């Protein structure tokens, strides 16, 4: 059903009745992560150093961002387009908003290009002016690509000397299971192999962010980068057993994800403790890019006042506060 809705909505680009365009930066980058829980990042207090670069990087780091849903398709369809919960309007999405405002848009992906769990999200990519996928098939195809292999395409997009403002979307494979098949190296070497590889994927992501910021600084152009993960994971294991990380919908950890903003004019590390639903993303994007449209109400993080966040658990909208806790597993050596 949602695939059909996306197919119909993306049959053509839609003009979103732009009223005003006043971007602050030349380059806007949206990095979409995968299966990353907030509580496993040392950035947010995890005792093992999993994000050493981000721990001290200058930028705005939000502690309290809650994803819309617990897997990629259901989450991103509601995050990247206009939605209040059960339904969404695919044609009113962030790529169409940027295109309508005269931005040049790029979509760079290490997710699958075609497949049961890939094609719906790719509909967003089709709307961009330029798209590049490392995988031509499904996300779980026979060849595994590292997220760092997107860096040449990212550098190429930055080098495009268009006079237009740019939106560059980078969709990562991130921390998606199977972790040990996706990482370059297991940097922790724990007896609990699953946890060890999962945490190693965080270290590789942290280094990727450092390299992307380095490339952005080399352009000598103003920029702002937003990162968020589409959803988290559950620790599906019994006490005293090895960790088994999996998709799920019943725990807070399935929705508690990182969100941060790194900008060329950031001069301090600012951590904000505030609940913010990912259902506001389109409004945040509008405010961030300086694009005012009749279809989207711009909102800053300061203007959001979420009291009772609801999430979509595949079938219903449920209170996030009612979900079960699922604390991060600490490393024991």
Question: Could you provide a short overview of the structure?
Answer:
The protein is 25% helix and 23% strand. It has helices at 2-9, 52-56, 72-79, 94-100, 119-126, 151-159, 179-182, 193-218, 281-289; strands at 18-21, 27-33, 59-66, 81-83, 88-93, 104-109, 130-133, 166-171, 223-229, 234-235, 245-246, 259-263, 269-277, 291-293, 310-312, 317-319. It is globular, with a radius of gyration of 19 Å.
Topology, element by element:
Layout: H1 2-9, E1 18-21, E2 27-33, H2 52-56, E3 59-66, H3 72-79, E4 81-83, E5 88-93, H4 94-100, E6 104-109, H5 119-126, E7 130-133, H6 151-159, E8 166-171, H7 179-182, H8 193-218, E9 223-229, E10 234-235, E11 245-246, E12 259-263, E13 269-277, H9 281-289, E14 291-293, E15 310-312, E16 317-319
Helix pairs in contact: 1-5, 6-8
Question: Can you give a write-up of this model?
Answer:
- This protein has 333 residues and is α/β, with parallel strands linked by helices.
- The protein has a single domain (2-322), classed as Alkaline Phosphatase, subunit A (3-Layer(aba) Sandwich).
- It is 25% helix and 23% strand.
- The chain contains nine helices and 16 strands.
- It has helices at 2-9, 52-56, 72-79, 94-100, 119-126, 151-159, 179-182, 193-218, 281-289; strands at 18-21, 27-33, 59-66, 81-83, 88-93, 104-109, 130-133, 166-171, 223-229, 234-235, 245-246, 259-263, 269-277, 291-293, 310-312, 317-319.
- An eight-stranded mixed beta sheet has the order 7-6-8-2-9-12-3-13, with helices on both faces. Strands 1-14 form a two-stranded antiparallel sheet. A two-stranded antiparallel sheet has the order 4-5.
- Strand 15 and strand 16 form a beta hairpin.
- Helix 1 (2-9) packs parallel to helix 5 (119-126) and helix 6 (151-159) runs parallel beside helix 8 (193-218).
- The longest helix has 26 residues, at 193-218.
- The protein is globular.
- The protein starts with a helix and ends in a 14-residue tail after the last strand.
- The mean pLDDT is 92.
């Amino acid at each position: 059903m949602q695939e059909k809705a996306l197919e119909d909505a993306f049959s053509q680009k839609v003009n979103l009745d732009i009223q005003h365009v006043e971007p602050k930066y030349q380059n806007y980058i949206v990095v979409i992560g995968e299966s990353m829980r907030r509580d496993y990042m040392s950035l947010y207090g995890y005792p093992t150093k999993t994000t050493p670069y981000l721990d001290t990087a200058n930028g705005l780091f939000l502690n309290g961002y809650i994803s819309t849903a617990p897997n990629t398709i259901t989450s991103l369809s509601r995050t990247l387009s206009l939605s209040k919960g059960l339904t969404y309007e695919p044609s009113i999405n962030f790529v169409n908003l940027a295109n309508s405002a005269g931005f040049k848009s790029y979509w760079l992906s290490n997710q699958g290009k075609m497949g049961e769990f890939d094609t719906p999200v790719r509909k967003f990519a089709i709307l961009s002016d330029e798209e590049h996928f490392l995988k031509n098939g499904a996300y779980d195809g026979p060849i595994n690509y590292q997220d760092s292999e997107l860096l040449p395409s990212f550098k190429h997009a930055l080098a495009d000397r268009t006079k237009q403002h740019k939106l560059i979307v980078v969709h990562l494979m991130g921390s998606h299971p199977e972790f040990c098949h996706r990482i370059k190296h297991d940097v922790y070497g724990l007896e609990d192999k699953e946890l060890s590889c999962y945490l190693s994927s965080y270290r590789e992501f942290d280094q990727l962010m450092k390299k992307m910021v380095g490339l952005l600084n080399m352009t000598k152009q103003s920029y702002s980068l937003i990162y968020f993960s589409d959803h988290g994971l559950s620790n599906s294991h019994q006490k005293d057993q090895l960790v088994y990380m999996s998709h799920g919908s019943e725990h807070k950890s399935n929705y508690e994800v990182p969100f941060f903003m790194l900008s060329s004019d950031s001069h301090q590390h600012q951590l904000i403790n505030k609940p913010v639903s990912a259902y506001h993303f389109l409004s945040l994007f509008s405010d961030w890019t300086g694009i005012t449209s009749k279809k989207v109400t711009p909102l800053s993080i300061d203007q959001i006042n979420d009291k009772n966040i609801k999430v979509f658990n595949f079938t219903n909208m449920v209170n996030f506060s009612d979900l079960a806790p699922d604390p991060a597993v600490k490393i024991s050596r």
